[in-house]
Amino acid sequence: MLKRPIPSSGEMLPVIGCGTYQTFDVGAAAATRAPLRGVLAALFAAGGSVIDSSPMYGKAERVAGDLLAEEGMRERAFVATKVWTRGREAGIAEMERSFALLKVSTIDLMQIHNLLDWRTHLATLRGWKAEGRVRYLGITHYTAGAHADLAAIMRSEPIDFVQFNYALDDRAAETSLLPLAAERGIAVLINRPLGQGNLLRRLARKPLPDVAAELGAASWAELALKYLISNEAVTCLIPATSKPEHMAMNARAGAGPLPDAEMRRQILAAAGV
């Protein structure tokens, strides 16, 4: 799998990871967790490492932590989660709970979810990064309406990562946040890389363009992800899934050739977006 550097450190990160929103919010039953164990196995088998979660995602942190521990996979994972509350003490308590649920002593990336009370949490995280409790810190949002706020923080604060939405049918970041991240030396995680849920259903009714074969993409999902990865400011995509076969398909997008400018134009034309 292709890897890209985290600008603040030079550490290389695989370009396809795994989100846990909704998909990992399950109970303790073995039958319920088995597919998710398969998702993580497929991610690691393909060379991926990033697993992104949040206290907002229900039981997702607990499930991810349990599976990583029981399968002995923690050393292969780049664990990212978030703080999603107001107030310094509440933020510290929530993040301590994330450490316990994820069963780790160090979190690779702690992010401020949807910018909630970001000034307060950023001060805490700077101290924790200096102490080695977190390796990287960042900010997140999932709507284009928040891009201006993300950009203002990216310009004014020393952060390692920014996470935001970007998809074939949601490309506002191409002319704003992605160039700014490249300019400021900030790593980029992409949430909702396959759109808002109906993008793939719409694309399923359209034939794959000829360029798909040139890129080794056997599905619209792979082609859509390759389009996003071809923007060099993108560090890692984190599509969420509960199906191991979908994780394997997503991961395939991170290997092989990527579209050039003309191929990108053809993909958008074929997709009708």
List keywords for this structure.
273 residues; TIM Barrel; 8-stranded parallel sheet
Write the layout of secondary structure elements.
Blueprint: E1 3-5, E2 12-14, E3 18-19, H1 30-45, E4 50-52, H2 60-70, E5 78-83, H3 88-102, E6 107-112, H4 118-131, E7 134-140, H5 147-156, E8 161-165, H6 177-184, E9 187-191, H7 199-203, H8 211-215, H9 220-229, E10 236-237, H10 244-252, H11 261-271
Parallel strand pairs: 3-4, 4-5, 5-6, 6-7, 7-8, 8-9, 9-10
Antiparallel strand pairs: 1-2
Domain unit count? 1
Structural class: alpha/beta
Mean pLDDT: 97
Q: Given this structure, which CATH class is correct? A: Alpha Beta
- Straight-line N-to-C gap: 28 Å
Please identify which CATH superfamily we are dealing with. NADP-dependent oxidoreductase domain
Shape: globular
Beta-strand percent range: 15-25%
Strand order of the main beta sheet, please?
3-4-5-6-7-8-9-10
Give the second-level CATH assignment, the architecture: Alpha-Beta Barrel
Helix content: 40-55%
Number of strand elements: 10
Helices, by number, come to: 11
Spans of 5+ residues with little confidence (pLDDT < 50)?
none
What is the gyration radius calculated from CA atoms? 18 Å
Write the element-wise H/E pattern from the N-terminal end onward.
Answer: EEEHEHEHEHEHEHEHHHEHH
CATH-assigned fold name:
TIM Barrel
The largest pleated sheet is described as: 8 strands, parallel
